[in-house]
Amino acid sequence: MTMTKVAILGASGYTGAELVRLIARHPSLQIAALTADRKAGQAMADVFPHLAILDLPPLTTIDEVDWSGVDAVFCALPHATTQKVIAGLPERLKVVDLSADFRLEDPEAYKTWYGHEHAETALQKQVVYGLPEFYRDSIKGARIVANTGCYVATALIPLIPILKAGLADPDWIVIDAKSGASGAGRAAKEANLFTEVSEGFHAYSVAGHRHMGEIDQELSKAAGRPVVASFTPHLLPQNRGILATTYLKGEADTIHAHLAERFADEPFVHVLPYGKVPATRHVRGSNHCLIGVVADRQPGRTIVISVLDNLVKGASGQAIQNMNLMLGLPETTGLEQVPLFP
Ligand SMILES: NC(=O)C1=CN([C@@H]2O[C@H](COP(=O)(O)OP(=O)(O)OC[C@H]3O[C@@H](n4cnc5c(N)ncnc54)[C@H](OP(=O)(O)O)[C@@H]3O)[C@@H](O)[C@H]2O)C=CC1
Ligand SMILES: CC(=O)N[C@@H](CCC(=O)OP(=O)(O)O)C(=O)O
């Protein structure tokens, strides 16, 4: 079997380590290079002892990578840094970017949500938005794919089909989302210490989180007119998992039937029986997204609950799903892990 040699940029971070864990048993991908910034020069086994059982290349700087031995790149770097790095890669390389740098199509929207001009607007035009359940055909032919944000994937997977089918009021969408602390990355500082995250629970970036730009972009496309959704993220005292509770004006039984039909053949999206609700522990360590639909006691309102693992379907698993499509491989290759419980 032909092996595709991959470089993982940002391998000393949480999503980088998750890419290594998943790719280590992928039958068609082979890890050729791993990079870090402050941790360059160290062995992966020293940075992540749980990966010591694998035979891995050492962490180097990006400048030290020998690109002649690389066919494809997973870029798991902070946003803003990423756009310069991807612009400097050899053009023959296929790239899946896990950061937010190439998700927003409108440079003005990027400036609004990220506070500075995008430095690579020409490159942005070549990028395909990486939510495979909706953009699979374009992803297959893409050179660069921008993975969706983790909160965004959780919210959009049920919402896009609902709005496309006109089953909910686009002017009344309320997304109440909660994430495990790994969503903030390994470099997160005081706010993500055990003492700050455990035994408590709080909202953050209220009415101003940068994922709103991405949510509005995709929901507006789905509805065929501008949509401005309400979205509030919260930090959970747990490592992994995102749960989004979305309130809609629409008929729950119709919405449930539509989602069940729309996702019937999707390998990673599962609609629970009507009235049942999912939990983050039902997807931990897996590439699956679960959706529950419940009728509100107020007639004409619906509650949709969606869950995924932010490090897998919300980041590294989704990135491999996209790379599988770009390489013409079966989409599920290397991603068939069953969730870990308890
Ligand atoms: N965590 C999550 O759940 C999700 C994250 N994402 C996105 O994926 C990307 C990676 O996230 P995550 O793994 O959590 O982040 P981490 O903070 O855990 O890791 C960041 C990685 O980037 C490296 N790095 C940092 N700055 C530079 C630089 N200037 N030049 C080169 N390398 C650098 C770090 O190296 P070193 O360790 O040596 O400093 C590390 O390997 C981010 O854009 C994030 O927003 C997307 C979806 C979900
Ligand atoms: C818990 C937590 O802090 N989550 C991160 C979002 C997760 C993420 O990585 O999103 P991007 O891919 O868009 O960077 C945050 O709220 O900024």
Automatic annotation (TrEMBL):
GO terms for cellular component: cytoplasm. SMART domains: Semialdhyde_dh. Coiled coil: none annotated. It catalyses: N-acetyl-L-glutamate 5-semialdehyde + phosphate + NADP(+) = N-acetyl-L-glutamyl 5-phosphate + NADPH + H(+). It holds the Pfam family Semialdhyde_dhC_1. It is an enzyme of class 1 (oxidoreductase). Pathway: Amino-acid biosynthesis; L-arginine biosynthesis; N(2)-acetyl-L-ornithine from L-glutamate: step 3/4. It comes from the Bacteria. GO terms for molecular function: N-acetyl-gamma-glutamyl-phosphate reductase activity; NAD binding; NADP+ binding. Keywords: Amino-acid biosynthesis, Arginine biosynthesis, Cytoplasm, NADP, Oxidoreductase. Its EC number is 1.2.1.38. GO terms for biological process: L-arginine biosynthetic process. InterPro entries: AGPR (IPR050085), AGPR_dimerisation_dom (IPR058924), AGPR_type-1 (IPR000706), NAD(P)-bd_dom_sf (IPR036291), Semialdehyde_DH_NAD-bd (IPR000534). The active site is at 150. Its main location: cytoplasm. It is found in: Cytoplasm. Residues 5-142 form the Semialdehyde dehydrogenase NAD-binding domain. Catalyzes the NADPH-dependent reduction of N-acetyl-5-glutamyl phosphate to yield N-acetyl-L-glutamate 5-semialdehyde. Belongs to the NAGSA dehydrogenase family. Type 1 subfamily. This is N-acetyl-gamma-glutamyl-phosphate reductase.
